[in-house]
């Protein structure tokens, strides 16, 4: 379909909810005609270099011929079929690849339909696991301040209640526990005191805790912070010591983004349960997965219910699985690590000039993630057009101006992108 005309845009602002938006005062929209490679083409003909990869997901760029072919071939065979009592090659081969790519202990795959649902599934797995182990009192979750795990009610309950996104619902959410966020930065020298409160909570509440859920090494929507892999290593050891499962939410970080295929691998650890999504289909369509150890799967299966209690209608949608399989194959073939290292160098160099600007509190880069943190939040309505005028698509959040480009972005486009970020901050100053 072509880009929207004036009547369609009027309908949009009157009738369609966009993410986190008001229907009385709808946000202004930039109508899109198409997207290809790292460029988003607006309806007025302007082309924007995309810094967001559609929120971490379009790692191969848009309109990729191999992903297009995978989708077309699969749609002519079977777009969807129920997964109850039926199975198919796209789901089997995708799961085989996920088991091979993720840390070795993760052997069982539940194919979910979005990142938030993969988190719900992980939480339910942890609860069912302890029930099956004869410890039904272990139902609570421990989470980390500044963490973010999605917008459904269970996922919201393990999001930091003070990060502002979910506090309206605090009365209806399960009451979970929260440990302080890790303070030791990615390259910092770890100090035992940084994890003392986590240990205290694990030891005091071990009888009621099912799992610790965290975003390994990179805290995304809750602040775009990169913390010490040593902290994560210690957290893994503490979970073992106090018999609490470890759930790693790699919905954002999975598939190379942080410089390792999975951010857990910076610490050389494996979680008991792993959530992946976003980049799984190269950003083509919604699909996620929750992987678990054989012990967790077998224990749940031998429990009272005899099965895991989840089964969405669009589970393992063949179209999404076929595209995801091709996306992961592409990732392996492209030498993603060299590309991410290249982008990391370009982001460091390009964002460095922001460090000396008066409004800038911090500049940080890890893998293909670049962040400028300001002292004050930006006004999105004011700042978004400034980026578009400079030919880039960047969507700031609060004090954070950040990018996570596609792995195929050229050095030249990356320099334009980072240059525009620095330039916009100068204009705001
Ligand atoms: N976990 C993390 C770490 C995320 O960043 C997100 C999405 N921003 C989610 C879960 C939820 O994923 P989705 O938006 O696909 O439901």
TrEMBL record:
<dbReference type="InterPro" id="IPR015424">
    <property type="entry name" value="PyrdxlP-dep_Trfase"/>
</dbReference>
<dbReference type="GO" id="GO:0005737">
    <property type="term" value="C:cytoplasm"/>
</dbReference>
<comment type="pathway">
    <text>Cofactor biosynthesis; biotin biosynthesis; 7,8-diaminononanoate from 8-amino-7-oxononanoate (SAM route): step 1/1.</text>
</comment>
<feature type="binding site">
    <location>
        <begin position="115"/>
        <end position="116"/>
    </location>
    <ligand>
        <name>pyridoxal 5'-phosphate</name>
    </ligand>
</feature>
<feature type="site" description="Participates in the substrate recognition with KAPA and in a stacking interaction with the adenine ring of SAM">
    <location>
        <position position="20"/>
    </location>
</feature>
<feature type="binding site">
    <location>
        <position position="249"/>
    </location>
    <ligand>
        <name>pyridoxal 5'-phosphate</name>
    </ligand>
</feature>
<dbReference type="GO" id="GO:0004015">
    <property type="term" value="F:adenosylmethionine-8-amino-7-oxononanoate transaminase activity"/>
</dbReference>
<keyword id="KW-0093">Biotin biosynthesis</keyword>
<keyword id="KW-0808">Transferase</keyword>
<keyword id="KW-0963">Cytoplasm</keyword>
<comment type="subunit">
    <text>Homodimer.</text>
</comment>
<feature type="binding site">
    <location>
        <begin position="312"/>
        <end position="313"/>
    </location>
    <ligand>
        <name>pyridoxal 5'-phosphate</name>
    </ligand>
</feature>
<feature type="modified residue" description="N6-(pyridoxal phosphate)lysine">
    <location>
        <position position="278"/>
    </location>
</feature>
<comment type="function">
    <text>Catalyzes the transfer of the alpha-amino group from S-adenosyl-L-methionine (SAM) to 7-keto-8-aminopelargonic acid (KAPA) to form 7,8-diaminopelargonic acid (DAPA). It is the only aminotransferase known to utilize SAM as an amino donor.</text>
</comment>
<dbReference type="GO" id="GO:0009102">
    <property type="term" value="P:biotin biosynthetic process"/>
</dbReference>
<dbReference type="InterPro" id="IPR005815">
    <property type="entry name" value="BioA"/>
</dbReference>
<feature type="binding site">
    <location>
        <position position="55"/>
    </location>
    <ligand>
        <name>substrate</name>
    </ligand>
</feature>
<dbReference type="GO" id="GO:0030170">
    <property type="term" value="F:pyridoxal phosphate binding"/>
</dbReference>
<feature type="binding site">
    <location>
        <position position="395"/>
    </location>
    <ligand>
        <name>substrate</name>
    </ligand>
</feature>
<dbReference type="InterPro" id="IPR049704">
    <property type="entry name" value="Aminotrans_3_PPA_site"/>
</dbReference>
<keyword id="KW-0032">Aminotransferase</keyword>
<feature type="binding site">
    <location>
        <position position="148"/>
    </location>
    <ligand>
        <name>substrate</name>
    </ligand>
</feature>
<feature type="binding site">
    <location>
        <position position="311"/>
    </location>
    <ligand>
        <name>substrate</name>
    </ligand>
</feature>
<keyword id="KW-0949">S-adenosyl-L-methionine</keyword>
<dbReference type="Pfam" id="PF00202">
    <property type="entry name" value="Aminotran_3"/>
</dbReference>
<comment type="similarity">
    <text>Belongs to the class-III pyridoxal-phosphate-dependent aminotransferase family. BioA subfamily.</text>
</comment>
<keyword id="KW-0663">Pyridoxal phosphate</keyword>
<dbReference type="InterPro" id="IPR005814">
    <property type="entry name" value="Aminotrans_3"/>
</dbReference>
<dbReference type="InterPro" id="IPR015422">
    <property type="entry name" value="PyrdxlP-dep_Trfase_small"/>
</dbReference>
<dbReference type="InterPro" id="IPR015421">
    <property type="entry name" value="PyrdxlP-dep_Trfase_major"/>
</dbReference>
<feature type="binding site">
    <location>
        <position position="278"/>
    </location>
    <ligand>
        <name>substrate</name>
    </ligand>
</feature>
<protein>
    <recommendedName>
        <fullName>Adenosylmethionine-8-amino-7-oxononanoate aminotransferase</fullName>
        <ecNumber>2.6.1.62</ecNumber>
    </recommendedName>
</protein>
């Amino acid at each position: 379909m072509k880009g929207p005309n004036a009547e369609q845009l009027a309908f949009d602002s009157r009738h369609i909810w966009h993410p986190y938006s008001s229907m009385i005062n709808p946000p202004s929209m930039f109508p899109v005609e198409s997207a290809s490679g790292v460029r988003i083409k607006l309806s007025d003909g302007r082309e924007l270099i995309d810094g967001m990869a559609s929120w971490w997901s379009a790692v191969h760029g848009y309109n990729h011929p191999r992903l297009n072919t995978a989708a077309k071939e699969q749609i002519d065979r079977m777009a969807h079929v129920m997964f109850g009592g039926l199975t198919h090659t796209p789901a089997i081969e995708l799961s085989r690849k996920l088991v091979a790519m993720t840390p070795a202990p993760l052997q069982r795959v539940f194919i979910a339909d979005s990142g938030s649902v993969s988190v719900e599934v992980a939480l339910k797995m942890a609860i069912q696991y302890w029930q099956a182990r004869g410890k039904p009192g272990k139902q609570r979750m421990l989470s980390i301040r500044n963490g973010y795990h999605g917008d459904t009610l269970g996922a919201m309950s393990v999001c930091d209640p003070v990060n502002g996104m979910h506090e309206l619902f605090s009365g209806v959410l399960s009451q979970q526990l929260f440990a302080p966020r890790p303070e030791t930065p990615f390259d910092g020298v770890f100090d035992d005191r940084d994890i003392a409160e986590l240990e205290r909570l694990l030891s005091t509440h071990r009888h009621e805790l099912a799992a610790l859920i965290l975003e390994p090494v990179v805290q995304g929507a809750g602040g775009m912070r990169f913390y010490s892999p040593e902290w994560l290593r210690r957290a893994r050891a503490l979970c073992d010591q106090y018999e609490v499962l470890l759930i790693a939410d790699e919905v954002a970080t999975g598939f190379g983004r942080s410089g390792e295929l999975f951010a857990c691998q910076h610490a050389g650890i494996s979680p008991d349960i792993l959530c992946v999504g976003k980049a799984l289909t190269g950003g083509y369509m919604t699909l996620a997965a929750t992987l678990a150890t054989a012990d967790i799967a077998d224990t749940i299966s031998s429990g009272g219910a005899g099965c895991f209690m989840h089964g969405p209608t669009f589970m393992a949608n063949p179209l999404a699985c076929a595209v995801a399989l091709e996306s992961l194959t592409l990732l392996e073939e492209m030498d993603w690590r060299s590309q991410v290292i290249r982008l990391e160098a370009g982001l460091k160099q390009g964002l460095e000039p922001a460090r000396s600007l008066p409004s800038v509190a911090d500049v940080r880069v890890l893998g293909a993630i670049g962040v400028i943190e300001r002292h004050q939040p930006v006004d999105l309505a004011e700042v978004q057009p400034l980026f578009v005028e400079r030919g880039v698509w960047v969507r700031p959040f609060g004090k954070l101006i950040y990018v996570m480009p596609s792995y195929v972005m050229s050095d030249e486009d990356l320099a334009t992108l980072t240059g525009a970020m620095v330039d916009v901050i100068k204009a705001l100053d």
